[in-house]
Amino acid sequence: MINKEKNFISVVIYVHNAEKTIKTFLETVIDTLEKNFEHCEIICVNDESTDDSKKSLRKSVPKQQRQVCLLLT
User: Fold this and answer.
1) C-beta neighbour count of 31 within 10 angstroms
2) Are the C-beta atoms of residues 42 and 69 closer than 8 Å to each other?
3) Backbone angles phi, psi at 71, to 5 degrees
4) Contact 53/19 with Cβ under 8 angstroms?
5) What whole-number distance in Å separates Cα of residue 31 and Cα of residue 35?
6) Mean per-residue pLDDT for 62-69?
């Protein structure tokens, strides 16, 4: 059992040509982290995608999700 109050986790996700899958993936990661950690952050790095991954990332992160940081290159 995880003690939610004392744990902090950072997750770095490198995104490369994931336009079609990033929304579902982020929803799953956010849901899992929120259930298990009081404090968490997700850092998404767009790794020079040639598709619309950058646009999908922006759309996929709800504005109220303060624990998600987008690094769009």
Assistant:
1) 10
2) yes
3) -110, 100
4) yes
5) 6
6) 64
